[in-house]
Write a structure and sequence with these properties.
By secondary structure, the protein is α+β, with helices and mostly antiparallel strands. The protein is built from three helices and 26 strands. α2 packs antiparallel against α3. The chain is extended and about 125 Å long.
Amino acid sequence: MTKLNSYKMTHIKATISFLLFLPFLTLAQVSKTSKSSIEKVIMFRDRAEVTSNLKTSVSQGVSKIEIPDLASTIDGNSISVSGKGAFTLLSVDFQKDFIGKRTLALKDSISVVEEAIEVLRVEKDALEMQEKMVMDNTEIKSETEDLYKDDLEEMSNYFRKKISEIGKEKLFLKRKIKELEERKANLENQIKTDPSRNLPLGKIFLTVKADQSTTAELTIKYIVYNTGWRPMYDLRLANTQSPVELTQKAIVYQNTGVDWNNVRLVLSTAPVNKNGIKPELYPQYLSFYEPRTVPMMAKSSRAMAAPQAEGMVVNEMADMETAANYSEVFEKTLNVEYDITLPYIVKSGSEETVEVQKQSIPAKYVTYLVPKSDKNGFLVAEVKAWEQYNLMPAEANVYFEGTFIGKSYVQLQANEDDLKISLGRDERIISERKEIKDYKSKRTFGSNIRESFGYEIIIRNTKNEAVNIVVEDQLPVSQNSDIEVTVEEASGAKVDAETGKLNWEINIPAAQSKTLMLKYEVKYPKDKQINNL
């Protein structure tokens, strides 16, 4: 061996020794890898606080503890660590791991399946060659031309048996190859359709110092994004004499890349994403408006440049236990929390519906009619002192007499004393609004025109029970002192002068009807035209 070759060999051996030693250097920097288990998740509307626990050993001196397979959406500034043990926590560091272990695991599985398919195809090819050889030898020849019948039958049975065996083996291999190809397609589909598998993971590194080897029990809390919850309701009514049975639900979702298995969920209404600083009021100075003269620009054949845009900123299952039977409601100073003690599984990339609370709410049922817009009534539940029920604006499924009748929306209005929940159309309350043609007129008096309008509103109750009904209509509202609107007849309606809204509260017995009259006059200068009359 030449000196040059000897030098190369020595260099190669040194390089190999360094590469072999490199993992040990890495392990010396991260002395311990410990997986944590998620115990509790406090869900906010657009994020979550995760609490996880782990128990691990700590070596003497300064060492690192790596906590892998965490969500990559962790807010690194939110990580807090507490625990028990004779050690000192020196630092906390969060890093994203872009290797994509889950996708790599799927790709490894695909490679294994592909290899198995190749092996089966080789076996299938070998069987086909064997089958060809057998078929090539089925032509029986004899120099003496005196084969006995028994010999011919024996040889015929042999070939038939052999071909049958080969055919069965080929069929078996064909089925196995098909199964493996379907398995491969499913694995490939998981990579394409499951976005959470393409998400990176996160790692937390804890640097600790211990005077001697010890055991550490750690609790780690952190905020994660790409998760949250939204409220939803089920409203069930047995009849219009019973209270509203309200089931409050939460649609919990998360796309953190990490599955939550058997975790304790706490749903919080705290608005963590909103500004918490009280607004300030500043003096509002008044002054006279003085129009500014804008000089005319000389025309130019050259088009003016456009100004730059500024920066753009259903079944009834009342007796069945659900999560609502395992939840507690805690009213705090600024928010409400629903603590679900029943463990839940929330897979990454999925949604789970959680029942958080069931309440029986007394309500007054009123049918509202707006004959000007619709001939049918609309059943509305009016709830007093609704603030005590910790409700939030949300969509609701409505069930009446055990049947799903549609969707509604629970809308909270600060300026309303009662909470009004629309429960759907009531086609057994019918109305008709007819113009009184004999009353309608248009007359001129001096410099003014007087126009008269009249309407007859007929409401019929086709039910076999009396019904409370609120009928709504409207008068035109003047925005000019030269336009006057005068009510001639309104059958005792309450009139809102600002909005022109008319309101009748009536009770109609079963299978009866009632007629309301609305008459009004509009006076305006005869040299003017009125819009929207």
